[in-house]
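tool_log.txt
---
The assistant was asked to compare two proteins side by side. It first ran the structure predictor on the initial sequence, then on the second. Raw inputs and outputs are pasted verbatim so the downstream comparison step can read them without reformatting.
(1)
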Amino acid sequence: MRGERIRVRGLVQGVGFRPTVWRVANALGLRGNVINDGEGVLVNAWGPNGSLDAFCDALHSERPPLARIDSIERIAIDDTAPEEDGFSIQASEATAARTGIVADAATCEACRQELFAPDDRRYRYAFTNCTHCGPRLSIVKGIPYDRANTSMSVFTQCPACQAEYDDPADRRFHAQPNACPECGPQVWLEDAKHRLIADSTTFQDAIAAAAARLAAGQIVAVKGIGGFHLACDASQAEAVDELRKRKRRDAKPFALMVASVEQAARFVALDDTEKALLSSTAAPIVLAERRADAPELPHALAPDQTQLGFMLPYSPLHQLLLADWQAFKPGMPLVMTSGNLSDEPQCTDNTDASDRLREIADCWLVHDREIVNRVDDSVVRVDLDRPRFLRRARGYAPAPIAMPQGFEAAPPLLALGGELKNTFCLLQDGNATLSQHLGDLEDARTSDAWERSLALYRSLFQHSPQAIAVDLHPDYRSTRYGQALAERENLELIEVQHHHAHIASVLADNAWPLDGGPVLGIALDGLGMGTDGTLWGGEFLKADYLDFSRAGFQQPVPLPGGTKALLEPWRNTWAHLATQVGWQRVCSLWPNVEIVEWLSDGKPLAVFEQMVERGLNSPLSSGVGRLFDAVAGALGLCRELISHEGQAAIALENAARRAPDEQGAYRFPHTEEKLELTAFWEDLLSDLRAGVDVERISARFHNGLAKGIGMFAIALCDRMDLDTVALSGGVFQNRTLFTRLHDYLSHYELKLMSHSQVPSNDGGISLGQAAIAAARLLRR
């Protein structure tokens, strides 16, 4: 008999891993014990020769559904084997935190069966869970992941629940949120004045009462796992319109929830990958193409969109609500959008939700389990047969991302991300832990919530960074906070250029080694501070983790009015026409084109000309996102005001997708260093004069831009002897541009890299910042 101390690292706490260890060890006749500690799971085991090998193999093959094993380390020990037979599970030890926290997981099939079984003691209990499902990140306060360190600590388990919790053979063994109707959280329905409408004391089921209110056209605030939703009948146009009005959300699409994959498939075309995503333990919102033969839904759900976003009920509360909803509108979806006013963070607290949603909701379906961490719904889309994140949050965060080869010895550091779609990143022990999507830091509430989340993560992971990485832009809240933090804690501050971070992010996302050499990085977005003081956003960078050089860029164009040009697309339209073609020439050659007449009718163009000539509040920008705004303005798709980020670009892409057979392409020639725009605008204006429809013009724009970028990339790779192209930036959320550029470059002998573990938008740049900062520290 020999003994080993076996260390298992990864996502191995709160997922039923110790019971698996116990079961396998007993089946193999091993002696010893297993514990949770801050580093993961530690096993002390003694057994016959060969049995310990079989034990470690079985841990991989029989691991629980939510577990992820990153490594198993084995050390021989000389200690005498325990005299008593058998194997035991010991109490957790509070040591330095070096293990991961599991993401919140959708209700498993076993719990769902109990939820709807009338003879089960958890029948219709809205907080049913086990070690294979339920809340994790949203309720955790500390490591190790034990009940005392969660928001379930205030609920004392009844004898029946305690017996399950204590039995290693039960799937609820040490399921920290374990509870039942006798001892756990409760749900109730109340009105705006906190008057009780329904709960267990009224002999009226609160969830069934909420479903009835939805059927009557009301808007219900629903407290979920990671925050509040606002729900209404998605088939009732009046309810959808009223929700838009009250929420002050003019055009941004609403997410929809249905009871099953089959119901979603009635409205959108789903392939196997999309179906698997919908029914996965992460249960994200999945964007998919509308079916031409789908039952009619109100236009206001997703104005002018070719896609709809569906998710399945992922908590017992949502499961029950959707089941009760079927009695009123079988097979129809509910709107399930974030519980907030536009641009504010999602509500998580009952009192806060009552105050902030008072002018939106008609009633509140709430419960008394605290949401410790706000976790929004993740949003995923399948492009080129791969899932790609638009938002990485519930179900995925904070699962760590293994850093590529060469980063093993990187010191711990903290990367604080950008201003929009913020995430932050904790790097240590060769892993990058990204926070869930935290939103736009321009909003004060979001910024405050961001600071609280950052403090909690640093506490949870006992993270003591040696350096802080921030964006180069001096006015970002994350940058200013990082500067103050570095000064307060006497840490090195590393400033990272925004688009370099984008490219480093996609390199890390694809496990590109630290010494893998440079690539051609194409970073396309709205804007980011460049090293020359201008605003970049159409960048072709020769880059590795350590450094970059600007090999090429889109022709810069001024932004008349500065930040106003980000909100009013017509300003970009005029600036492009005036600087790339010449306004007098435009008026001479295309005087009767509608956009030319519109701009000439009362707009302060003379003032703009003076601003641009003198460089007054008209910063130069190479942002491709601003080009999309300008084109959408020219076509009248989104001209006067943008109500949410990307609105103009989305409208433009949706118009292009309505002309799928269009093969024409506008000209986007390039010089040695610039992608030029003059020929494109001349082509577009000529098509407008000839009466070509908006859909074909949009398609020709996408085709031409993809080809122009592709030709420029090929020329740059040839000149710099590069064979790999990395694509990143929010513009690549445009499926049409992304797939057409990908197809174009695939014809050449170039390796292409794009995102799959983090978003291509600014939600991924904290990973890039961390990689760049780590590379620079390692170089020393």
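(2)
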Amino acid sequence: MAKPHLPFFRLITAFGIVSAVWLTNVGATESAPPVVRLFNASDLPQLARGIKLPPEARYTVKVWAPTQQTWSLAVDGPTLTLTAKIDGADETPRWQNVGGVDIKADGRVRLLVALPEAKMTLTTTSRSKSAPTAIPKPVPAALVFTTDPEFDPAPALDLIRGRVDSIAPPLDLRRVRVRTNKEGADFHAPRSAQEWRDRAQTVREHLLVTLGLWPLPPKTPLNPWVYGKQERDGYTIEKVVLETLPGFTLSGNLYRPSGKSSNLPIVLCPHGHWEDGRVNPEVQQRCIQWAKLGAVVFLYDMVGYNDSKAFGHSFLNDRLRRWGLSLVTLQTWNSIRALDWLTSLPDVDSARVGCTGESGGGTQTFLLTAIDDRIKVSAPVVMVSDSFQGGCVCENAAGLRIGTDNVEFAALTAPRPLKLVGASGDWTKLTLTRAYPAIRDVYSLVGSTDRVDAEVFDFPHNYNQTTRNAVYAFMGRWLLGINDPARTREGNQTPEKPEALWTFDERHPAPSDRKSPERLEADLVQVLGDQLDGLAPSNRSSAWQASKALLLKALKIRVGLKNPAPAELDETTVRQSSREGYTTVHSLVGRKAVGDQIPVVRFRPAEPSGRLTVIATSHGKARLISPQGEPIPLVKALLERGQEVVGYDPLFIGESFDPASPAFHRPNTDHFETYNPALAGDQMQDLATVIAWARSQPDVREVSLIGLGQAGPQVLLARPALEGISRTAVDLDEFDPKDGSVDLPASLDLPGLLQFGGLKAAAALAAPAPIWIQRAGKSFDKSWPQKSYALADTAHVLRLTPGTASPAEMAAWIDTGK
């Protein structure tokens, strides 16, 4: 993704009406119980947007915060503002009555407190820098609106939180730790050749999905326009325009050796971030020399450079990201289509294809080499490193380097010949001690150590003559059969003036129907949507099995969750207590190697049946408790059936939120989602971790799952990747991402959400597991799960209902399937 914009602390002023967290039954009689609504610190953005309370009543506002914080309430009509004074060092939390407010006829009220941005924002420039981080101000850990000034929230808090003696969240390292583009993934070769082959296949699929090339776009006619041939000493130069997508052109120059017309090797030359792109004199030099050596060479533009400058170099926004598309998609697709055209030429040998580029062109080189076996020799220059992964939007796509890095991408070249060249004056200075040994170990596994080589020269970031000569010698051996480096050395050469290479000018204007970024975006979304329609379940089982495999791969990569084994889990019991008919156990659950800690509450009935249900909600475990400190009816109904119930607070929700240093997402960094899961991904991983922990309990023989609120769509998206679940019920709350252009809550804003078909595809991919889907949105195509379950001969375990089930109905179905 593009670099997230750092939050500025501010007062949230957006106004809206949202559903209640809790609300007792309110009647018109004097005997009606008091109105009570209880909120956690993570609910404060909801309060800032606005809530609606039963009107014509006076409400008392109470906050739960450390004793050192004295909170006050200012009332301005329907707008309430909380502020705090800090005095002393006593961090023991207590309830404070901060004031009252009269709610008028419409019942609308909003509560403001200084907050950071609740959601990261995307930028589309590769050179934007992070703003300074503001010092966070504390917020109340919990607060109450109630018509009863004497109401005591302590019993509810006792069930909602594991710790009631402190507002401190668990020590989850994810709140403060992120991976940046200056870090690798500590790649090392696996133990065997078979392990490497399996891993290589996994990483290639990961690349194709995150590059937005899964499925590949249709290969439409390239309509090549080749003209303006220039005769030079030993070589020729021609101008080339290819239509790599309908209405989207790629310009470049084709260099050919003079006097040779058959069986010529190919060298593909993407360029780096030179200001003048492919017409830079240093870039031209290698193309001239390769043509003199006897190769057909294609030097082509980065998107937004030279002949495509009008298009710009920043093809990224929220809708594109949700469809899995980016500027990296366009550049990689251009390379694939350029190779399609080159290998179709009558004078080339399509079995001898090399690719070399520098810096950003090095990124293009190793990405193309990793996913396209037609590249037989590769030389990514001054880019392969474990200390810097790429700083431009054209090198960073959402999810691209999660769990992997450029070193592993380069290793995917094996066993094909690979040449690395680093420079002492940039991030590749440690090539010989860091990147190269790990890659060489891969070549050793496959028995091809003679095909990999690396050098570092004492220069700044470059692709100068010294570096070029090293690449000529290596690639010349494998492409041209020249074993004497002296024969490949570059002599004096004269580069062309820029205007001699540009494809568009007054005499040769650009096509009038070239698409703008906005038009191309719309067309790509339409094409991908049509492709997904073609992959939908049909009456042919074999066709759906093939489609299912493709879509499931994309879903699993985009969701990104891992199902941890019992040995990978860590559990700490915080406390437990007994109440009439059930026991509660508060724990912290996480993965040992990650350092995450998820607050969990486990309700155990007096006579457990061995069945357990995990309930995921958009407000965490707090949604399972009434303001009076009792389980909600759904939890009670499950407990009465002998079911254990587990609730949890995913990252940045409930007890996982830090009110002393409030933040709604991990720290911002350049191209955050290239290296780190989005919040939706982190929270779905929490779901997987909690389920794995529940399944590992020795007294549990069956685990089911319920998703409510915004957690309903989360659960459905994650369900095909989750293991060991008996029955699943989700209330989608009519969530509808439409075509991806609407604003989405961060908890559901998953990169690639629509790339694999979204919720309808997730439902279809859940077959044959029993599932009950309630209140689907307008764009949810029910035919997807209906046909998928019918093909699996399990239509009887799929339920699709327009309304919400009662607690008793939900509990009965979860417990018995009826």
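---
observation on (2): The longest helix spans residues 517-535. DSSP finds 20 helices and 28 strands in the chain.
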